[in-house]
Amino acid sequence: MTEPVEVLDKLQDYLRQAKEVEESPPSPVSDSSAYAARLDIAFKELSSQVEEEKNALVQLKANVAESNFDQPSTDPKKRLQQLRAIKAAYGNLTQAAPYLPSPDSPLPVLLALRNTHKVFAESKDSAWTTHRKLSEARERLAQEQADLHDAQLITAALKDGIARLTIEVQEKSQVSPEETAKAVIASQEERSQFLEEDTRKSVKALARFIKSHLAALVAAEELGGPVVGDLLDVSDEMLAAGFNPKGTAKKPKAQTGKVDSKRQRRIDRIWGPHEGAIREGYEREATAAEMRSLIEDLLNIAAEEGPDAYVTLTRDSAAVRFLIRAKVAQFHPRDARNLRLIDFGRELAE
């Protein structure tokens, strides 16, 4: 028990000396050169200590190799010898005084500075990691709050819908079958009137569009001009003058009050013989009438005979080609003289 007490006494003496050095007033010679000298002394002490430890390690390895301490021996005598050697080694280590730098050595300050720098770097990394995790947590919180708000809105809407359906069911349960049938008939009639009115408005809007914009473009294609869409501004003068074989509008002729014979022949060939004077814009008006008639025939036969019914064409006109390109109508698979509307609502109904 005396050896541990001696070691403890040495440690206490070292602490006492170090405290006296710290409390003693600074020496007037304490400048950079003195500090460098102390660093050199501390370095030499550490180098000497390292060299001693290396020599001791080499000697210990040699003793271990000679004693064959790699594994416990099965022979009781050798095993006892090994245990005694190990006990002696621990005794020597316990008796040896630990290495402590001198009280005025800068080594404790350097170690403390290194540990402080290490703790500071770890604290900085930890603060950055904590900040990043806090930002991620705030983003998740905001997303969760938004999801919660959406869920609350959906829940409220579902509750309102359930409440309305409950009231409707209760009201319907109190209504007789005759009143229910009358209400359904009235609803269907109201819907039918709405659809008829909406259809009339759509037909009128289509007629205005054909007359003001589309008819002139289709008439130009019918007269050998550009395809509908290639030329957006076609005047009645251009239609009256006609187009050359390349599809370019001819130069309008001066107004003489007489109808050009070529224009007369074109009109008779395309739209049939015309009785009476041919006025300005006749080509546009004839094309508009032809398009309205074709669309009305397609709508009427689809309403009367079903969406698969076809209209028999009298000729291949620019109006027919335009409806085909616009995917409004389609030819019969085996007879291009028959045309029908494309049933847009069939896929929705299915």
Write structural notes for this entry.
This protein has helices at about 1-25, 30-65, 75-95, 105-175, 175-220, 235-240, 260-270, 280-305, 320-325, 345-350, and strands spanning about 310, 330, 340. About 70% of the residues lie in helices and about 5% in strands. With about 350 residues, it is mainly alpha-helical.
> What is the count of helical runs?
10
Regions with pLDDT < 50 over 5+ consecutive residues? Answer: none
**Structure class:** mainly alpha
Total beta strands: 3
Order of helices and strands: HHHHHHHHEHEEH
Radius of gyration (CA) equals 54 Å
Q: What gap, in angstroms, lies between the N and C termini?
A: 100 Å
Give the rounded overall mean pLDDT: 78
Strand residue content: under 5%
Q: Report on the biggest sheet.
A: 3 strands, antiparallel
Features:
three-stranded antiparallel beta sheet, 10 helices, mainly alpha, about 350 residues, 3 strands, about 70% helix
Short description:
By secondary structure, this protein is mostly helical.
